[in-house]
């Protein structure tokens, strides 16, 4: 035979129906052992290979998984992507990657496209402006499981994997107070993100545990176009001695503002970030930050999604919180010997 051997070719040669050949190849149906063996022998002789698309269609599976991230140029989400991709490849699935760049409408378009492609499941980190989750609900009602990563959603009964940001935020505030800071500013993230809420709540709890009054003037919203002016006012009034930030990138901006006002970091003002992006080590001084196990989060999200795919009738919903840990660098005064990155990874593994 020349070209790709088809089931119809084998059926014609043996004088049987294509459905008989299909049943023989899949070891199913009521056919004689003699016919089954004849089909198998000819298939082997002619080098027949099943069409994976046809097989998956028969099984009602595409072996495709959709991934929706805000973006993957930043280190954090690229590591999430690495974790997802590793598990997906190990289990013989194909990954379709989409980014919404923080745009709700792009997110809706991506979800609808993946649903129309009949992917077997979707892993998503929804946009900061998302408050209507009907597009995800449509996919779920079409029997396409959805697992959120780095986000949780109270509006949908879906599994999710996040990092335990609350204790990491508490730890950063405790560290600052223990080094003598009392006027601690928090630059918060987008209000509708669970990560923003947990980090802000951890900041407040950390202050309460250390007996420091929580004051609204020290809570700046990064979505407010005037947050930098508010920070500059506090700096000019010498009304800030430490800053905790929703992300390392906000911390970088805060440090640049402090430098413009002639403030020394950390002698005048200490700064703490979140996530441990590469910028944290490139800054001068290097940034104290809370490390998140991004790759592990991506792996667990993919593993949970595969579990849902393999158990489509199960009503179980899984929620997982992976541990965080603070690493001290030059942007804060030191209270203990600095932990190496390897030591930090060991702490995260033992806590999980």
UniProtKB/TrEMBL annotation:
InterPro entries, A to Z: HTH_LacI (IPR000843), LacI/GalR-like_sensor (IPR046335), Lambda_DNA-bd_dom_sf (IPR010982), Peripla_BP_I (IPR028082)
Residue ranges constituting the HTH lacI-type domain according to the UniProt record: 5-59
Keyword Transcription in annotation: yes
Entries under SUPFAM superfamilies matching the protein: lambda repressor-like DNA-binding domains (SSF47413), Periplasmic binding protein-like I (SSF53822)
CDD domains: HTH_LacI (cd01392), PBP1_LacI_sugar_binding-like (cd06267)
Entry annotated with the keyword DNA-binding: yes
UniProt keyword list: DNA-binding, Transcription, Transcription regulation
An annotated Gene Ontology molecular function: DNA-binding transcription factor activity
The protein's name: LacI family transcriptional regulator
């Amino acid at each position: 035979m020349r070209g790709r051997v088809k089931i119809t070719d084998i059926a014609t040669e043996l004088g049987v129906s294509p459905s008989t050949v299909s049943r023989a190849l899949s070891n199913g149906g009521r056919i004689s052992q003699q016919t089954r063996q004849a089909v198998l022998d000819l298939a082997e002789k002619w080098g027949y290979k099943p069409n994976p698309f046809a097989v998956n269609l028969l099984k009602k599976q595409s072996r495709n998984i959709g991934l929706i991230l805000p973006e993957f140029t930043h280190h954090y989400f690229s590591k999430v992507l690495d974790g997802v991709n590793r598990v997906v490849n190990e289990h013989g699935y194909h990954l379709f990657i989409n980014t919404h760049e923080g745009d709700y409408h792009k997110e809706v378009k991506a979800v609808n496209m993946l649903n129309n492609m009949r992917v077997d499941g979707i892993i998503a980190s929804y946009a900061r402006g998302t408050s209507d989750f009907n597009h995800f609900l449509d996919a779920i009602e079409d029997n396409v499981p959805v697992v959120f990563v780095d986000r949780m959603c109270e509006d949908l009964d879906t599994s999710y994997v996040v990092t335990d940001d609350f204790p990491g935020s508490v730890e950063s505030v405790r560290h600052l107070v223990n080094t003598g800071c009392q006027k601690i500013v928090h630059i918060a993230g987008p209000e509708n993100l669970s990560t923003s809420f947990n980090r802000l709540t951890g900041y407040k709890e950390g202050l309460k545990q250390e007996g420091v009054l929580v004051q609204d003037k020290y809570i700046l919203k990064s979505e407010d176009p005037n947050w930098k002016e508010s920070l500059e006012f506090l700096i000019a009034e010498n009304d800030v001695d430490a800053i905790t930030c929703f992300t390392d990138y906000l911390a970088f901006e805060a440090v640049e503002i402090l430098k413009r006002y002639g403030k020394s970091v950390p002698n005048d003002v200490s700064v703490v970030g979140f996530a441990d992006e590469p910028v944290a080590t490139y800054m001068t001084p290097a940034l104290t930050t809370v490390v998140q196990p991004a790759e592990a989060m991506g792996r667990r999200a993919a593993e949970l999604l595969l579990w849902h795919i393999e158990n489509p009738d199960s009503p179980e919903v899984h929620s997982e919180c992976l541990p965080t840990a603070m690493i001290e660098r030059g942007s804060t005064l030191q209270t203990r010997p600095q932990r190496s990155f390897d030591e930090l990874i060991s702490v995260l593994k033992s806590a999980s």
